[in-house]
TrEMBL record:
GO BP of this protein: base-excision repair
The protein's name: DNA-3-methyladenine glycosylase
Key words, A-Z: Metal-binding, Zinc
PANTHER family: DNA-3-METHYLADENINE GLYCOSYLASE 1 (PTHR30037), DNA-3-METHYLADENINE GLYCOSYLASE I (PTHR30037:SF4)
Pfam families: Adenine_glyco
Sites where the protein binds Zn(2+): C8, H21, H179, C183
Signal peptide: none
GO molecular function, one term: DNA-3-methyladenine glycosylase activity
Superkingdom of the source species: Bacteria
């Protein structure tokens, strides 16, 4: 039976992109571990395609201790050297060095706000921003909110969190719903507020 569902343009080129689009992209994420994973993966994407990151996602999880920030915060030069030998991941020295810095900054934010989710969802007042784009050409690469998020993350010591990366993180974590109007998966991002708000 042929799949008649309509999707955002970027999700029609490969099965792995389609599966990610259909089940994860734009779905609100309130779990700290998942948000940390997305933040790391978006940073790894910098200068590359999201498809490359998706194809290596399992290898990243294995190499990065299941994206556990408590463990990653203790990564040292020896661990960075080990990761640089791992052909299954993106071997960029600056990105790998940023792992422990981002994990420590993440844990500090969590300690201050109770959860990282509470911190990051505050930038969108606790509910997803639902956009109404007709075509992929209309979808921005950054917004004033992602610029503010980027600025604050950098101030807290995060690396590889420029406004474009921060916006991609917002899209992936469902803080913003950029599914096109014709996309059959557009409704998966609800207006339910952040839990407890």
């Amino acid at each position: 039976m042929r799949d008649e569902l309509r999707r955002c343009d970027w999700a029609t080129h490969s099965q792995i992109e389609q599966d990610y689009h259909d089940s994860q992209w734009g779905v609100p994420v309130f779990d700290d571990q998942e948000l940390f994973q997305l933040l790391i993966l978006e940073g790894m994407q910098a200068g590359l395609s999201w498809l490359t990151v998706l194809q290596k996602r399992e290898a990243f999880s294995s190499a990065f201790d299941g994206f556990n920030p408590e463990i990653i915060s203790f990564y040292d030069e020896a661990k960075e050297h080990e990761l640089m030998q791992n052909s299954g991941i993106i071997r960029n020295r600056l990105k790998i060095r940023a792992l422990s810095l981002n994990a420590r900054a993440f844990l500090e934010v969590r300690e201050q706000y109770g959860t990282f989710a509470a911190y990051v969802w505050n930038f969108v007042d606790g509910a997803p921003i639902i956009n109404a784009w007709q075509s992929s050409q209309q979808v921005p690469t950054q917004t004033e909110i992602s610029q503010n998020l980027s600025k604050d993350l950098k101030k807290r010591g995060f690396k590889f969190v420029g406004p474009t990366i921060s916006y991609a993180f917002m899209q992936a974590g469902g803080l913003v719903n950029d599914h096109l109007l014709h996309c059959d998966f557009r409704s998966q991002s609800s207006r339910l507020p952040f839990p407890g708000s």
